Amino acid sequence: MSLSLDPISLAVLAVNTLVGAVLVVSAYDLKDHVLGWISWLGGAIVGGFVGWVVLPEFMAAPPAAGQRVVLAGAAVLIGTVLGRILIPLAARFAVSIAAFVFATLAVLVMTAGESLLRRFYDPEASGLDAVAVDAAVESSLLSQPEFQQFLLIAVVVGAVAGLLAMRYYDYIITLSLVALGSGLVAMTVPVWRAVAAGEPVAFVEQAALSNAAFAAVFVAGIAVQYVRHSGNGSGGNDVLA
Residue 2's beta-bridge partner residues? Predict the structure, then answer.
Protein backbone atom coordinates (compact mmCIF):
# COMPACT_ATOMS: atom_id res chain seq x y z
CA MET A 1 0.00 0.00 0.00
CA SER A 2 1.39 3.35 -0.98
CA LEU A 3 0.67 6.06 1.55
CA SER A 4 0.12 8.53 -1.27
CA LEU A 5 -3.05 6.57 -2.11
CA ASP A 6 -4.28 6.59 1.49
CA PRO A 7 -5.43 10.12 2.41
CA ILE A 8 -6.30 9.16 5.99
CA SER A 9 -2.85 7.73 6.72
CA LEU A 10 -1.24 10.68 5.00
CA ALA A 11 -3.32 13.06 7.14
CA VAL A 12 -2.33 11.24 10.34
CA LEU A 13 1.34 11.39 9.40
CA ALA A 14 1.10 15.06 8.44
CA VAL A 15 -0.69 15.96 11.70
CA ASN A 16 1.92 14.20 13.82
CA THR A 17 4.70 15.95 11.96
CA LEU A 18 2.94 19.31 12.21
CA VAL A 19 2.31 18.98 15.95
CA GLY A 20 5.94 18.08 16.53
CA ALA A 21 7.14 21.00 14.39
CA VAL A 22 4.86 23.46 16.21
CA LEU A 23 6.18 22.30 19.58
CA VAL A 24 9.76 22.65 18.38
CA VAL A 25 9.26 26.14 16.96
CA SER A 26 6.86 27.58 19.56
CA ALA A 27 7.72 25.69 22.77
CA TYR A 28 8.40 28.82 24.82
CA ASP A 29 5.18 30.46 23.68
CA LEU A 30 3.10 27.33 24.24
CA LYS A 31 4.46 26.22 27.62
CA ASP A 32 1.76 27.97 29.66
CA HIS A 33 -1.01 26.85 27.32
CA VAL A 34 0.15 23.22 27.32
CA LEU A 35 0.45 23.15 31.10
CA GLY A 36 -2.99 24.76 31.34
CA TRP A 37 -4.53 22.13 29.06
CA ILE A 38 -2.87 19.36 31.04
CA SER A 39 -4.16 20.91 34.27
CA TRP A 40 -7.74 21.17 33.02
CA LEU A 41 -7.71 17.68 31.55
CA GLY A 42 -5.90 16.04 34.47
CA GLY A 43 -8.22 17.64 37.01
CA ALA A 44 -11.29 16.61 35.02
CA ILE A 45 -10.10 13.00 34.71
CA VAL A 46 -9.29 12.69 38.41
CA GLY A 47 -12.55 14.39 39.37
CA GLY A 48 -14.56 12.14 37.09
CA PHE A 49 -12.90 9.04 38.52
CA VAL A 50 -13.54 10.17 42.08
CA GLY A 51 -17.17 11.06 41.34
CA TRP A 52 -17.96 7.93 39.33
CA VAL A 53 -15.96 5.28 41.21
CA VAL A 54 -14.77 6.47 44.61
CA LEU A 55 -17.63 8.51 46.09
CA PRO A 56 -20.37 5.91 45.41
CA GLU A 57 -18.40 3.44 47.52
CA PHE A 58 -18.85 5.66 50.57
CA MET A 59 -22.57 6.22 50.09
CA ALA A 60 -25.08 4.33 52.22
CA ALA A 61 -26.94 3.07 49.17
CA PRO A 62 -25.68 2.67 45.61
CA PRO A 63 -26.76 5.75 43.62
CA ALA A 64 -29.06 5.41 40.66
CA ALA A 65 -27.65 5.89 37.19
CA GLY A 66 -28.90 9.48 36.95
CA GLN A 67 -27.56 10.38 40.39
CA ARG A 68 -24.21 8.85 39.52
CA VAL A 69 -23.99 10.93 36.35
CA VAL A 70 -24.83 14.12 38.27
CA LEU A 71 -22.30 13.23 40.98
CA ALA A 72 -19.60 12.52 38.42
CA GLY A 73 -20.40 15.72 36.53
CA ALA A 74 -20.11 17.83 39.67
CA ALA A 75 -16.84 16.08 40.55
CA VAL A 76 -15.52 16.76 37.05
CA LEU A 77 -16.25 20.48 37.41
CA ILE A 78 -14.63 20.65 40.85
CA GLY A 79 -11.65 18.57 39.71
CA THR A 80 -11.18 20.77 36.65
CA VAL A 81 -10.96 23.93 38.75
CA LEU A 82 -8.73 22.36 41.39
CA GLY A 83 -6.52 20.80 38.73
CA ARG A 84 -6.02 24.16 37.01
CA ILE A 85 -4.91 25.63 40.33
CA LEU A 86 -2.91 22.80 41.87
CA ILE A 87 -1.27 20.93 38.98
CA PRO A 88 0.94 23.87 37.84
CA LEU A 89 2.14 24.29 41.45
CA ALA A 90 2.74 20.56 41.77
CA ALA A 91 4.62 20.50 38.47
CA ARG A 92 6.90 23.33 39.58
CA PHE A 93 7.71 21.58 42.85
CA ALA A 94 8.08 18.23 41.10
CA VAL A 95 10.71 19.68 38.77
CA SER A 96 12.56 21.18 41.73
CA ILE A 97 12.40 17.96 43.77
CA ALA A 98 13.52 15.87 40.79
CA ALA A 99 16.52 18.17 40.26
CA PHE A 100 17.40 17.90 43.95
CA VAL A 101 17.17 14.09 43.98
CA PHE A 102 19.10 13.52 40.75
CA ALA A 103 21.83 16.02 41.63
CA THR A 104 22.23 14.56 45.12
CA LEU A 105 22.45 11.01 43.82
CA ALA A 106 24.85 12.04 41.07
CA VAL A 107 27.24 13.64 43.57
CA LEU A 108 27.02 10.63 45.87
CA VAL A 109 27.81 8.31 42.97
CA MET A 110 30.78 10.42 41.89
CA THR A 111 32.19 10.77 45.39
CA ALA A 112 31.30 7.72 47.46
CA GLY A 113 29.97 5.55 44.67
CA GLU A 114 33.12 3.56 43.94
CA SER A 115 33.78 2.66 47.56
CA LEU A 116 30.12 1.77 48.10
CA LEU A 117 30.12 -0.44 45.04
CA ARG A 118 33.19 -2.29 46.24
CA ARG A 119 31.59 -2.94 49.63
CA PHE A 120 27.97 -3.68 48.81
CA TYR A 121 27.79 -4.72 45.16
CA ASP A 122 28.61 -8.16 43.79
CA PRO A 123 29.12 -7.96 40.00
CA GLU A 124 28.94 -11.76 39.72
CA ALA A 125 25.38 -11.84 41.09
CA SER A 126 22.25 -10.68 39.31
CA GLY A 127 19.14 -8.72 40.25
CA LEU A 128 18.56 -7.84 43.88
CA ASP A 129 21.09 -10.45 44.96
CA ALA A 130 23.84 -8.23 43.56
CA VAL A 131 23.24 -5.65 46.30
CA ALA A 132 24.13 -6.59 49.87
CA VAL A 133 21.23 -4.75 51.51
CA ASP A 134 21.77 -6.23 54.98
CA ALA A 135 25.46 -5.31 54.93
CA ALA A 136 24.62 -1.76 53.86
CA VAL A 137 22.11 -1.38 56.69
CA GLU A 138 24.41 -2.87 59.31
CA SER A 139 27.38 -0.77 58.22
CA SER A 140 25.90 2.44 59.70
CA LEU A 141 27.12 4.58 56.85
CA LEU A 142 25.59 7.71 58.31
CA SER A 143 27.79 7.43 61.37
CA GLN A 144 31.00 7.46 59.32
CA PRO A 145 32.61 10.93 59.09
CA GLU A 146 33.82 10.44 55.53
CA PHE A 147 30.38 9.48 54.28
CA GLN A 148 28.82 12.35 56.25
CA GLN A 149 31.06 14.78 54.35
CA PHE A 150 30.09 13.25 51.01
CA LEU A 151 26.42 13.36 51.98
CA LEU A 152 26.64 17.00 53.10
CA ILE A 153 28.26 18.02 49.82
CA ALA A 154 25.67 16.05 47.86
CA VAL A 155 22.76 17.65 49.75
CA VAL A 156 24.17 21.15 49.21
CA VAL A 157 24.64 20.53 45.49
CA GLY A 158 21.15 19.02 45.31
CA ALA A 159 19.64 22.02 47.08
CA VAL A 160 21.35 24.41 44.65
CA ALA A 161 20.10 22.31 41.72
CA GLY A 162 16.56 22.37 43.14
CA LEU A 163 16.63 26.14 43.54
CA LEU A 164 17.97 26.59 40.02
CA ALA A 165 15.26 24.30 38.67
CA MET A 166 12.64 26.38 40.47
CA ARG A 167 14.20 29.57 39.15
CA TYR A 168 14.44 28.40 35.56
CA TYR A 169 11.30 26.29 35.56
CA ASP A 170 9.98 27.97 32.40
CA TYR A 171 13.11 27.07 30.50
CA ILE A 172 13.03 23.47 31.71
CA ILE A 173 9.44 23.12 30.51
CA THR A 174 10.47 24.73 27.22
CA LEU A 175 13.29 22.21 26.77
CA SER A 176 10.88 19.39 27.59
CA LEU A 177 8.42 20.57 24.93
CA VAL A 178 11.21 20.96 22.38
CA ALA A 179 12.34 17.42 23.19
CA LEU A 180 8.77 16.13 22.84
CA GLY A 181 8.31 17.87 19.51
CA SER A 182 11.70 16.64 18.30
CA GLY A 183 10.72 13.10 19.22
CA LEU A 184 7.46 13.34 17.27
CA VAL A 185 9.22 14.70 14.20
CA ALA A 186 12.08 12.19 14.44
CA MET A 187 9.65 9.27 14.67
CA THR A 188 7.98 10.31 11.43
CA VAL A 189 11.24 10.57 9.48
CA PRO A 190 11.44 6.83 8.61
CA VAL A 191 7.79 6.90 7.52
CA TRP A 192 8.38 9.91 5.25
CA ARG A 193 11.36 8.08 3.76
CA ALA A 194 9.06 5.17 2.95
CA VAL A 195 6.62 7.60 1.36
CA ALA A 196 9.36 9.11 -0.78
CA ALA A 197 10.53 5.65 -1.85
CA GLY A 198 7.01 4.51 -2.67
CA GLU A 199 7.30 1.59 -0.24
CA PRO A 200 4.41 0.02 1.64
CA VAL A 201 3.88 1.89 4.87
CA ALA A 202 3.27 0.39 8.31
CA PHE A 203 3.29 2.93 11.13
CA VAL A 204 4.03 0.44 13.89
CA GLU A 205 7.10 -1.03 12.20
CA GLN A 206 8.43 2.14 10.57
CA ALA A 207 7.69 4.86 13.14
CA ALA A 208 10.97 4.40 14.98
CA LEU A 209 12.94 7.18 16.63
CA SER A 210 15.76 8.45 14.44
CA ASN A 211 18.53 9.56 16.80
CA ALA A 212 20.23 11.72 14.18
CA ALA A 213 16.96 13.43 13.27
CA PHE A 214 16.08 13.91 16.94
CA ALA A 215 19.44 15.53 17.71
CA ALA A 216 19.26 17.79 14.65
CA VAL A 217 15.68 18.91 15.30
CA PHE A 218 16.32 19.40 19.02
CA VAL A 219 19.37 21.60 18.42
CA ALA A 220 17.46 23.53 15.76
CA GLY A 221 14.55 24.00 18.18
CA ILE A 222 16.81 25.37 20.91
CA ALA A 223 18.37 27.74 18.38
CA VAL A 224 14.92 28.93 17.31
CA GLN A 225 13.86 29.57 20.91
CA TYR A 226 17.05 31.53 21.52
CA VAL A 227 16.64 33.65 18.41
CA ARG A 228 12.94 34.34 19.05
CA HIS A 229 13.13 35.05 22.79
CA SER A 230 16.71 36.11 23.59
CA GLY A 231 15.51 39.65 24.21
CA ASN A 232 12.37 38.86 26.19
CA GLY A 233 11.97 38.17 29.89
CA SER A 234 9.13 36.12 31.35
CA GLY A 235 7.79 35.76 34.87
CA GLY A 236 10.75 37.55 36.37
CA ASN A 237 13.27 35.16 34.85
CA ASP A 238 16.35 36.28 33.05
CA VAL A 239 16.33 36.47 29.29
CA LEU A 240 17.27 33.41 27.30
CA ALA A 241 21.01 33.47 27.11
Answer: 200
